[in-house]
């Protein structure tokens, strides 16, 4: 049957049944249409707020399929969403009425331990990368939730437990294979297509479809000192300034985040604290165990924790420690600020908001950066925000659609209250889809150079379902 497909200008175009049949013939992967089994699973993304119905989902099996899909979408002028891990809060990995190019079957990770390199396909998840590399005691710096996609995370920058020591994910990127809007598969690295290589390191999905990434690997673990220190929220006013002083003196190996929320009903939390507001210090030291114990000691000596779970443990396990709180299927809305400093005043704004949580699953993460991230010049890659020391992520999460307005209003109010304490920039990967006014700020001083490269590789703005760089 012929079908109507939405174009990227918002009109519709007719695609004939014979064209879909021809596409199926050339693909190694599959074309999933609305009446096909698996369509609803294939259009679902991490954030359950997103409920979009694409006309067609092309489930690629390799780079050749990606070329076919890009050519197909371009020749029909169809709206094109690109899906890696499907984790982005905006839901840009899926679109209404257009074509989704789904890379989730492309998850291979090939590690060369001697050369200390890994080639990772564009649909791999962080857990794929962690497990394959840690088998050799090696690692790529990635994020803190192992079900996140490597592609979206890396193209936006990518930071987590090891970034202060090893830099952002993009700082370990050696090359990327990418299909640009003209359907060409290009290798971008320091020597070839160097402009494109610069742009994909922080410029998001604006420049094409990354079929694979080559990362430099670092020695790490496999055991590290890591864990949680859970404190009553009432202790936060005293703890936050002490935390601030301790992280200022922390070695690069130590990364120490704060999480403020209601304690989950987890077996490691005493029952009397379940659903009570807590401040969690989450830390990871990516060096030798003895050094890790030493670096963690002053944090463990703070206050009187309800529970102290800091201990040597497998790094690959710690990388998934937050997964149970960050499962797909909940409704989510995020607001995020960059901070150059985490002041007492900013801390008290957050603590005040935590006393008025609109749902048990809402939380505020304070991510800890600096170290090696800040030693790379801000124009060396497209990621410009190298001077940010902390990222506050207002992570609003709930189950019932009836709670939408209360939860979103809470997030926006906290975001507004924090604005005077923030630097004004934002991490491109943490922006919700209603923040189009912050896109230029997210790319910062690198925006104009990105716009020139965008014009060179994607003059029609075919890749626009992202934090879009328009000229
Ligand atoms: C629970 C949770 C925890 C997170 N923690 C961290 C963290 O610790 N550190 C951090 O840095 N970030 C973190 N993030 C943010 C994360 O980096 C972004 O959501 C990222 O976009 C996810 O990538 P993805 O491939 O899963 O997303 P998708 O939703 O699949 O893709 C997001 C966008 O990336 C582009 N894209 C995806 N795949 C490709 C590809 N192969 N080629 C070209 N473009 C592509 C597309 O524009 C797409 O719209 C977290 C997100 C969540 C939901």
Folded structure, characterized:
Strands 14, 15, 16, 17, 18, 19, 20 and 21 form an 8-stranded antiparallel beta sheet that branches. The chain has helices at 17-26, 39-42, 63-76, 126-134, 150-156, 163-166, 194-200, 236-248, 289-300, 315-318, 344-354, 404-418, 439-443, 447-457; strands spanning 3-6, 12-15, 30-32, 56-59, 80-83, 99-102, 109-112, 117-121, 138-139, 173-179, 185-189, 209-216, 218-219, 223-232, 254-262, 277-285, 307-308, 311-314, 331-339, 363-368, 390-398. A hairpin with a 4-residue loop joins strand 7 and strand 8. The model has no long low-confidence stretch (mean pLDDT 97). Helix 8 (236-248) packs across helix 11 and helix 11 (344-354) packs antiparallel against helix 12 (404-418). The chain is globular and about 70 Å long. It is of the alpha+beta class and 471 residues long. The chain folds into 3 domains: 3-102, Uridine Diphospho-n-acetylenolpyruvylglucosamine Reductase, domain 2; 109-219, 2-Layer Sandwich (Uridine Diphospho-n-acetylenolpyruvylglucosamine Reductase, domain 3); 223-436, Vanillyl-alcohol Oxidase, Chain A, domain 3 (3-Layer(aba) Sandwich), CATH 3.40.462. It starts with a strand and ends in a 14-residue tail after the last helix. Helices cover 27% and strands 24% of the residues. The chain binds flavin-adenine dinucleotide. The site of flavin-adenine dinucleotide has 34 residues, from strand 5, helix 5 and strand 12.
């Amino acid at each position: 049957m012929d079908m109507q497909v939405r174009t990227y200008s918002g009109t519709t175009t007719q695609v004939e049944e014979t064209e879909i049949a021809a596409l199926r013939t050339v693909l190694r992967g599959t074309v999933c249409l609305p009446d096909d089994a698996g369509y609803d699973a294939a259009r679902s993304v991490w954030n359950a707020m997103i409920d979009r119905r694409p006309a067609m989902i092309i489930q690629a099996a390799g780079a050749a399929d990606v070329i076919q899909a890009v050519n197909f979408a371009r020749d029909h002028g169809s709206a094109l969403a690109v899906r890696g891990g499907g984790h982005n809060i905006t839901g840009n990995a899926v679109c209404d009425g257009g074509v989704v190019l789904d890379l989730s079957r492309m998850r291979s990770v090939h590690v060369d331990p001697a050369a200390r390199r890994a080639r990772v396909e564009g649909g791999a998840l962080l857990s794929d990368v962690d497990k394959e590399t840690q088998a050799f005691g090696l690692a790529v710096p990635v994020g803190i939730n192992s079900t996140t996609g490597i592609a979206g995370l890396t193209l936006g920058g990518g930071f987590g437990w090891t970034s202060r020591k090893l830099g952002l994910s993009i700082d370990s990127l050696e090359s990327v294979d990418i299909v640009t809007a003209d359907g060409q598969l290009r290798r971008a690295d320091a020597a070839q297509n160097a402009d494109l290589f610069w742009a994909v390191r922080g410029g998001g999905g604006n420049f094409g479809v990354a079929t694979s990434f080559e990362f430099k690997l670092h020695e790490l673990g496999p055991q590290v000192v890591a864990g949680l220190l859970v404190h009553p929220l009432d202790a936060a006013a005293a703890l936050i300034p002490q935390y601030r002083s301790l992280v200022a003196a922390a070695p690069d190996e130590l990364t120490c985040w704060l999480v403020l929320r209601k304690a989950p009903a987890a077996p490691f939390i005493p029952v009397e604290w379940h659903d009570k507001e807590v401040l969690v210090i989450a830390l990871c030291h990516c060096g030798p165990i003895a050094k890790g114990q030493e670096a963690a000691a002053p944090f463990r000596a703070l206050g009187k924790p309800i529970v102290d779970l800091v201990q040597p443990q497998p790094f690959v396990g710690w990388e998934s420690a937050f997964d149970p709180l960050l499962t797909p299927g909940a409704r989510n809305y995020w607001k995020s600020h960059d901070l150059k400093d985490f002041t007492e005043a900013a801390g008290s704004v957050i603590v005040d908001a935590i006393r008025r949580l609109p749902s048990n699953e809402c939380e505020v993460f304070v991510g800890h950066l600096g170290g090696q991230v800040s030693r790379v010049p801000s124009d060396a890659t497209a990621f410009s925000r190298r001077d940010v020391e902390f990222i506050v992520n207002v992570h609003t999460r709930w189950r019932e659609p009836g709670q939408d307005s209360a939860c979103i209003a809470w997030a926006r109010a906290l975001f507004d209250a924090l604005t005077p304490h923030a630097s004004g920039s934002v991490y491109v990967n943490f922006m919700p889809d209603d923040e189009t006014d912050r896109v230029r700020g997210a790319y910062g001083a690198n925006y104009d150079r990105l716009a020139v490269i965008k014009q060179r590789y994607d003059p029609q703005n075919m890749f626009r379902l992202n934090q879009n760089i328009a000229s």
